[in-house]
Specification:
Blueprint (H helix, E strand, L loop, with lengths): L14 H15 L5 H8 L3 H13 L3 E3 L6 E3 L1 H11 L2 H18 L2 E7 L4 E7 L14 E2 L5 H8 L3 H10 L13 H14 L2 E4 L6 E9 L5 E10 L5 H4 L3 H15 L2
Antiparallel strand pairs: 1-2, 3-4, 3-8, 4-5, 6-7, 7-8
Helix pairs in contact: 1-3, 2-3, 5-10, 6-8
Amino acid sequence: MPDDSHMADKSQIPTNMRLLLLLEEVARAGAPVAPSTLVETLDLPKPTIHRLLTKAEQEGFLQRDVDGRSYGPGRRLRRLSTNTLSSQRMRTERLLIMKGLSETVGETCNLAAPGRFAMVYLDRVETHWPLRIQFPVGTEVPFHCTASGKMYLSSLRSDKLDRLLGWLELEQHTSRTITDTAALKAELSKTRKRGYATDGVEFMADMVAIAVPIRDVTGRLLTTLSIHAPTQRHSAESLVEDLEPLRETAAKLETLVQY
């Protein structure tokens, strides 16, 4: 809950600040939030909460969940989050940290965040090898057949995961893509237990990857850090040998966002 103890009278909070507090609470919750919860959490009148939600939805900062009642981050709030993570000072530090990983493992490393329908690449540091696989910043890749996507799916509560898999199309990209929901859930269970995800030529032919989570102070997944490599140099199994520096780098990146 936002700390508004310095404001003795909530009715004196400026309207624009009320909207910011509401957006902050929806983003912090990490799951769709019902108006009644926001009334209780923010201690604002019910009509005020509904008015703010309506305006935020109209402007694209919030969007209604499938239940038609609760709200989650909308397109503009997700873009704001991405732009904040990509601010120049933080990005400079982030790229230096990622460059250290790329030099250690000799492969390209990527930072990705979950979007509404796919994982979105936020940053990358290229390997020096002429043979490499490129995903420009802003590229969207599927949840179900990428290391970053499977890492994200494994972090979801079972009810949210079931809802997502209910509408997610498990498109086959290679002969190794998991297209069966039960098999994917088994893979996610294994991912959850071991704390990392792999892509064994499941998204692109001749490419493998490994990913670990970057978490906030509450332990919730924010983004993923991954290593991509062509099969000419690596297998999914051999990339696991780089798990220690990958996790060490993820821990360094977490210090940039855990404040």
